[in-house]
Every structure is written in C-alpha cells, then in structure tokens.
DNA sequence: TATTAATTGATTGTACACAATTAAAACTTA
DNA sequence: TAAGTTTTAATTGTGTACAATCAATTAATA
C-alpha cells in the first residue's frame, strides 16, 4: 500500500534553520551562565540589568528605565518592588508629576557595584569568543534590536 | 566642597556593551514579531516551537522534546497540557517504560502546518537582513548555544 | 475655563522559565 | 533477587513577560 504523498517539507519550518530559536535558546543559556555569579549579589538576571542602568544613572523614572531595558511597567513594577524590599532602591512619586514614579539607588544598591566588577570578565571567559568577534556579533544583534524596536 | 572621587566606571558594566542584553532584548522582540502571525494559529511562541519539532518528528517523549528545545518538564508539562486541551496533540505514558510520556501530534496539529507555511518568510521580511548574512549570524549564535549547552 | 486627549504607572490575568522536591519505574550490582 | 542508584515526569514555588484595562494626572484646545 503506497503512502499518501505528503507535501514536500518546508525547510524554513525546520527548527535548526530558525535564527529565532538560536536567539531564544541563547538568551536563556546566557541567563543560566550569569546565575551562579549573580547569586553572590542575591539578584536575578533582570534585576542585574536594572542595576546596570541605575549604576550609570542613579535616578530614573519607571518609564525611562523601561525605555532603556525595553520592558513595560507590568514587568518592572513587581520587579522593582522586590528590589525596594531589599533596600537596593527607593520608589517615590515625582511631586511635579504625580503620574511618574522615580526610582533611586540606595547606598546599598550603589555598593553592589563593587561586588559586580569581575562579572563581565567571568562571563566573557565562559563565552570563549575573541573580543573582536564578540564586538561584531553584538553590533549585528544591536542592529536587529534597533530594527525591531 | 570637592566630590568624593568615585572609582573609575567600569565600561564592561555598561548596558550598551553587553552582548547578553542584546540577545535578551532581541529574543523578546522576535517573540513580539511572531505574535501577530501566530495569533492566526492561536498558539504562543514557545508552543510554535513545539509544533516545529513535532511537524518534523510527529512523536517524541517529553524528554526528547526538552532536549531539542532545551526546556525542562517544569516548562513543558503545563505547556503541553494546554496544547492537549486544544486537541493539537495527545500525551500518553509509554507502555514499555511507564516513566516516559509520549507526545503525538493529532491530525488537527499536523493540519496547522499548512497554515504556518508563510510565517518564516513573513518574519524574514521584517528582519530585513540578506539570507546569507542571516545564515552567518545564525551559525555564530548556534556556536555559542553549543558552547553553553 | 471646560472638555477632550494623551501620558504614565499600577493592576489583573495568562503563560512561560526554572530550581527544588517528589514519586514512580527501570536499571545495576552485590 | 534485594537494595541502592539512576532516569523520567510531575509538582510546587518564585520570578519574570506582556496584553488589556484602569485610574490619575497633565496637556491641549475649543
């Protein structure tokens, strides 16, 4: 009995051919790479990204933070509340515009930066890619990010 | 009054210099790019990835599915249950090894593949990157995935 | 100025993602 | 073969993500 001929499989629908899957998988693997290093700081990876931004700027509104991290308030509000509970930052309404919530790093939050100094190198070490190659890759990815933003 | 001299800022701790952030942001942006296309199939992006695998293999254990997608049962079990409720697949214990749960595509699940044919092209269109460049980028990302796996 | 429109966060609800634990079954080996 | 180990999913609990909605406030304009 002959098999009913299937339509030719679409190679574009194969998992291995998907750029999207590589990005998705890599993103989760990178988070896992950071995790043991971030355990020392007792922060999660998204919280670490918030700290990176605040170490640069110290004070930002939720809106501005969201613009930099490409995250909305539905994600940031509970995350920031957890960080506030741990005394790494404060959240308060802007008196000049009561709609806006301003996030400010505490001394403790600023102090964490010292403990984070070695993290980028330790991660780069595990990625085992030459810095120039990494830079090229990062530029390409940033182009795509800009394109889709 | 002079400012207390801060330690020189570590450029490696700047958000813009982080490969990790580009990957993280791009992954979420890609998911958002897929979302309106996947709405027609009424699936989420991770569910779409499960379908991609099953369209290739039809029947796999949860374990095998997890190996291909790099996801564990804590993620897959509830996701597969939702897909089972929608009749796209069935879940049943392997009689030869009762520890194993075998996932099989239903006719309805297989039928979805036809509706998905145009999706890769439509996404590629939005990425506006020449196919050869995309292939190079994908290869680099896959290398990193392999490295971290 | 009164009304409308736009901005900004918070809230709610759904769906991942994963660590840690549990439980059942299968395998190993003394 | 009995005891201990390994394998495999499920469960539980925490923490993102994000769409949709709501509420408060500000800005714009008729």
From TrEMBL, chains A, B:
Main location, first listed in the record: cytoplasm
Compartment list: Cytoplasm
Zinc among keywords: no
Entry-linked InterPro entries: HTH_MarR-typ, MarR/SlyA-like, Transc_reg_Sar_Rot_HTH, WH-like_DNA-bd_sf, WH_DNA-bd_sf
UniProt keyword annotations, A-Z: Cytoplasm, DNA-binding, Transcription, Transcription regulation
Residue span(s) of domain HTH marR-type: 16-149
One cellular component term from this protein's GO annotations in UniProt: cytoplasm
Single Gene Ontology BP annotation: response to stress
GO molecular-function terms, A-Z: DNA binding; DNA-binding transcription factor activity
Top-level taxon in the UniProt lineage: Bacteria
Record's keyword annotation contains Transcription regulation: yes
Protein name per the record: DNA-binding transcriptional regulator, MarR family
Species name: Hymenobacter arizonensis
